[in-house]
Amino acid sequence: MPSIYVTRFFQLVTARRFAQAERVLLRLRQKISRTEWNTGYFQALRGMLLAQKTNDDRYVFLSNANFKNHNELQKYRREFLRQARNKLHADYDRGYFAAWASYMRVLAKLEFATEKTESKISKKKEGKTRVRPEKKVPEKAKERAEIAKRKEEAKKTIVEPAKSRIEPTESDEEIERRQRTLFEFSK
Length: 187
Known about the structure:
This protein has helices at 3-14, 18-31, 36-54, 60-64, 70-85, 91-127, 140-163, 170-186. The chain has 187 residues and is an all-alpha fold. The protein has a domain at 3-114. It is elongated and about 90 Å long.
């Protein structure tokens, strides 16, 4: 399974962007080989998408699980990994549980990352109690005048070289004479 697509799928399902998640799921379907393990993994992904879409109480695990709690996510992940490694399960089932373990891993990282950023933001807010003075914004008329002045200066620099006539210098004549000499020498 291409982990980039799978991780993106999990992010999209968690963010409830179902149309994009379905597109990623179609790409995954095209990229995977047809083995029992991959079929189980893919079916688990489809099930996650459908369960999140319907948001029904019949899917007790998704509706009752606290995905904000990092420790709980790790506990679920360990359980799914244990089932995925169990040799008594068929390859299809092991692929299915591996998909759920991957989903718990991504959720733990997503929630843990949001918790980290929220705590950093709150620490920064606590540390900054000083009020900054407002910057003075220049008037629009002054800005327009400056812009017009810059445009005029730019036009002058462009027009001036075009007005001046470029006359051949002695060095140009010498180069031309050498080229003629080389041309005659090559005959």
